[in-house]
Amino acid sequence: MISNVIYSTFYGSQFNEAWISFKKHYFSHKPEKSGLILGLLVFFLLSIYCHESKRLHVTKSLRVFLPQVQLARISFLDIFRILIQLIWISFINQSSPYDKLLDNLNLINKIIYRGFSIIFFPFKVFEASSGKILNDIENSDSSNDGQFRPQIYLFIIFLLAIVCLTIPFNITSQLIFVVIMWIVAMSVRKTKGYLPKLILVILSLTLASRYLFWRATSTINTDSSIDTTFSIILFIAEVYTWLILLLGYFQIAGPLQRKAHLLSNDISLWPTVDIFIPTYNEAIGIIKTTTIAATNIDWPKEKINIYILDDGNRHEVKELAEQVSVGYISRVNNTHAKAGNINNAMQSSHGEYIAIFDCDHIPVRSFLQTTMGWFIKDKKLALIQTPHHFYSPDPFERNLSNFKKTPNENSLFYGVIQDGNDLWNAAFFCGSCAILKRKPLIEIGGVAIETVTEDAHTALKLHRKGYTSAYINIIQAAGQATETLSAHIGQRIRWSRGMAQIFRIDNPLTGIGLKFSQRLCYANAMLHFFGGIPRLIFLIAPLAYLIIHAYIIHAPTNEILLYALPSIIHSNLANSYMQGKHRFSFWAEIYEAVLAWYIAIPTTVALFKPNVGSFNVTSKGGIIKEEFFDLRVSKPYLILIFFNIVGICFGIYRYIYGPEYEVSTVIINIVWATYNLLVLGGAISVAQETKQLRLNHRIDVKTDIVIRNSSGHLFKARMNNYSDSGLGVQLYADNLNFNKNEHIHVILSHGNREYVFPAVISSINKVYMGLLLDNLTEKQRRDFVKCNYSRSDAWCSWEDNFSIDKPLTSLLDIVTVGFHGYIILARSVPNRITKYFLKGKKLVYFIKTLFPQNIY
Amino acid sequence: MPVLCIQGIQSSVGSSTVTANVARNLYDLNQDVLVIDLNPSNLLRLHFNMDWFNKSGWALNVLNDEAWYKAGFKCELGVNFIPFGGISYDNQLDLLEKINTDTWLSEKLNLAKNSKKKWLILNTGSELNKLSIQALKYADSIIRVIEPQVISVSLISDSIQSNYLKNDSALNTKCLYLINKFMPLSQLDHDTSLVLKAHLANSLIPVKIYYDENIKEALAQKTTVQLYSPESATSKQFKTLATWIMLHFSHKVSA
Q1: What DSSP assignment string belongs to A114-144?
Q2: Which chain A residues have a beta carbon less than 8 Å from that of B184?
Q3: Would you tell me which of A295, A436, A583, B225 could form a disulfide with A579, CB atoms 3.0–4.6 Å apart?
Q4: Are A435 and A371 in contact (CB under 8 A)?
Q5: Element (H, E) at A675
Q6: Do the chains contact at B184 and A745, CB–CB below 8 Å?
């Protein structure tokens, strides 16, 4: 009896509360009259209908029950939506709509999970056991007697490989072979170490070589001359890809990951260093920051000399040099561009070492102390390179808006390839953020002037003389990336032309002084740039069948799948394992597709006529006022897209009207063409240039600072970003009485002291303030650079955000990016068509609201 | 129970302000805090919102032969404090006369030592007399508040107070130095701080308290800067200081 009483009061109060909360939610916002009546109706229906325990919950969030109805503004059609939804809920519902639904969902979820775990159980076991075995083997390595005779092993491996690659299988045996390979790869993939890497590489090479052998021996079409031609062209492209794969594995087999070597405590033993900052036509502000940062480098003052190498012969650069009190070197003519500039400066300077920074690469203060130790340790060392790091997004990152989420194009080269080169003593000079030893450099006649990529050629010449090089993968300088896609492409055209020139006039595969491994690394670096034509071939290969009905691969479909797919999957697995956080799977497809057309011609030309072409300066750090679609750059992709679409239309025609035995071939080629379309769509997305309004890119940080207002109050704040000219600040409360245009002081701590900078509030929005630095003195400007750009840990945690590559996720990303390209295309076609397109989209959304929806 | 003694290297360097703010922040860090004002200028009470005209305090209680601890207050946010009390010059002489044994203060303070978690913070005047010397000896650590000025460099190397502390090695090892009223806009303050750092090495607390209008305004509101302006830079610095002190003591205890 008593319990009943308690229950009823409890229940009563609950209903009351529900009513109050309902009123608060839906009546204070002035709904329309019809909405009010309907809202009331819904409330009472639900209250009566619902189980008591859920009543409060339900009314508090009617939105949960009626997600498709805007309760604040109920229209006539909503009556139907509400009715449909109520019927839907009651149809499922027995006691309470939630519980039933959730129970069912949970059950389904459980069943699926169980199923998966049963299917994947063997893999889990394999993974665990192989991990243990591999670790055991690696740990037992030390017991070797050190008598390693590679010749014998190589011979055995060679024999085994011949057997493995050439033995013909029928379909069933090939299937079994492939599945076993796959299981092995999946089992070792999760274990870290050298051995799993080797296993993955060997598996991938085996399958790729087997594929190539099979292609060469049993799939070249000799039926008609057209078929044969296409067949052979595709085969050559595939051989090229295989070669690059092979060389790539060799190159990054064991990244050295060299650590900094400590200098001796006796400063008098430290060598003298010249710092060169070559410039031609870059903005004065960029040069200034870099020069100031160079003066901040920690090194004995009498042992460091800084020079601005001005090829533009500009008066204001000379003034800047005087202001910052660094040397200024210019010359009358500017033959041989940057290389000539450096060579000229070498005549009027005397340091034992020469550090080179492009004028937009801002060094941190620890640059020399991190690197110079290796010169002291290794007397044959002639070159140390550090990574090029960009604090602003490159065109890919900006236009695809994946800055700091996906590793950029650079990341693979500086994160993995150079480290890999270093193992083979083949790390090469990249033009900036590097130190050269003067003596060897003079010995080879200064920086190479024969090609437009003076950097790589200089390194090659040094290696030929028997000098060594080193790469230290610690970001010790940062700069701005190229601003537009066309500028980016221009830069890559220069690189590819230069590399092709070197390949032609000073081929690393021949000539004196190089070790075999160095030859391979250089060859790969150069051959890599010849990838334009093969990439184009892959992009149009399916059309050969779809449009002109040429059989380019003369084999049954299932056989093609059994040979080609495993080889693709395994090379992805191995590369994903080795490149980890520096390149996500499939992204190379987009990077290469964008460049393919543009590098195809210059490399080919340079191969035959190496002396054509001049040096072009890559422009950086501009602004893009309006979003625009770069039609000029994207023309080649549009043409390729057009042909691929035509090909797919042909394919559909062939599917419907063609003979039955061709159906599977048609499907394969359509899938291939669709994939090509996606990749090309990605290229289109990149060509859509998004806005870039800031001239000085703001660099994100999180640092505690202090702000002093004009009345002498000090407030704590957080600096969110900074640039040359200002900083973004976040306050801890929004009632601190800061006003726009107020003059304040910013106090930054660095080391064990504070620096004060005057600033003006340029914008204020609640707790966020934009500050502009206000008439800094020369000393303050220097201090500002010291507190920010020059911090030795300024770029240390940059790559921490990147997750590990997940191949399937990145495939999905590529698909999304590809689709996005077509949405961009749809937007830029005439209004008449888009209008219908957009109407169709609206209609779909409208119909969607009429459907009942699940509630959670 | 840790006993902390806060003393200015000279008068008006802000030792009462530091005491009040450190006490507040320790309290915010879930510590039980008792602050005793041993400074005859009787200013600490103003940081804890005590009535302007209320002159009561432990010194008066002692002179009137009442229990000294009955002069204690608990300010509304939880810090316990005992004001000195408003006394005249004659009263002060009487008081010093009453301190006739070396353990006079410690006998009294031991009464307050009953809880492990409890902090005892003593704010003494910069002048040396029987009272302040006993407080210095009783404390586990002494925080000497200095201003980043040229005279401070002179005072830490040669003054009655500094020489006394230096000559007693037990006291000397207990000394910590805190820079207060640092003006970041002043180049001289930066330079003097570096000189002080060179002189004091590890005994200089690595937290500086800035010269901030917020502190002055907080006192005008008779409260600590924590309450008056929690977003101010100094409120954060006091918080850091309190955390540093806690770590310092826990380190000492474990060692």
Answers
A1: HHHHHHHHHHHHHHHHHHHHHHHHHHGGGGS
A2: 706, 708, 745, 747, 754, 756
A3: A583
A4: yes
A5: helix A663-687
A6: yes
Closest by CA to A386, choosing from A407, A371, A376, A372, is A371
DSSP codes of every residue in A320-358: HHHHTT-EEEE-S--TTHHHHHHHHHHHT---SEEEE--
Evaluate whether A595 touches A492 at the Cβ level (below 8 Å). yes
Residue pair B24/B142 in contact by the 8 Å Cβ criterion: no
Torsion of CA A393, A399, A403, A407, to 10 degrees: -90
Q: Name beta bridge partners: B122.
A: B5, B36
C-alpha A700/C-alpha A766 separation (Å) is 20
Q: What is the total count of domains within chain B?
A: 1
Average pLDDT taken over every residue of chain A: 82
What is the Cα–Cα distance from A672 to A543, expressed in whole angstroms?
Answer: 9
Q: Do residues B115 and B32 lie in contact, with contact meaning Cβ atoms separated by under 8 Å?
A: yes
For residue A694, what pLDDT is reported?
Answer: 60
Res. A19 pLDDT band, cuts 50 70 90: low
Q: For residue A1, is pLDDT > 50?
A: no
A726/A772 Cα distance (integer angstroms):
4
The CB density around residue A416, as the number of other CB atoms within 10 Å, is 22
- Cα radius of gyration rounded to whole Å, chain A: 33
Residue B145: which H helix or E strand, with range? Answer: strand B141-146
Q: How many CB atoms lie within 10 A of CB A694?
A: 13
B interface with A, Cβ–Cβ below 8 Å? 184-185, 190, 193-194, 197, 206, 210-214, 229-236
Residue A771: is its pLDDT beyond 60? yes
- What's the pLDDT band for A188 if we cut at 50, 70, 90? confident
Tell me how many degrees the CA angle A707-A713-A718 measures, rounded to the nearest 5: 25
The residues pairing with A479 across neighbouring beta strands, listed in sequence order, are A361, A390
- Do residues B105 and B3 lie in contact, with contact meaning Cβ atoms separated by under 8 Å? no
Q: How far is CA A411 from CA A492, A570, A794, in A?
A: 15, 22, 17
Task: Classify residue A450 by its DSSP letter.
Answer: S
How large is the ipTM?
0.87
Query: Domain limits at B116?
Result: 3-254
Task: Report the CATH number that the domain containing residue B241 is assigned in CATH.
Answer: 3.40.50.300
Among A396, A682, A677, which Cα is nearest to A539's? A677
**Could you tell me if A273 and A351 are in contact, meaning their C-beta atoms sit under 8 angstroms apart?**
yes
| Spatial distance between the Cα atoms of B105 and B91, rounded to a whole number of angstroms | 17
Angstrom distance (rounded) from CA B36 to CA B19: 10
Contact B39, B84 (CB under 8 A): yes
Which of B193, B194, B212 faces A714 most closely, judged by CB atoms? B212
Q: Is A793 noted as a catalytic residue in this protein?
A: no
CB B34 within 8 A of CB B82: yes
Spatial CA neighbour of A362 closest among A475, A482, A491, A483 = A475
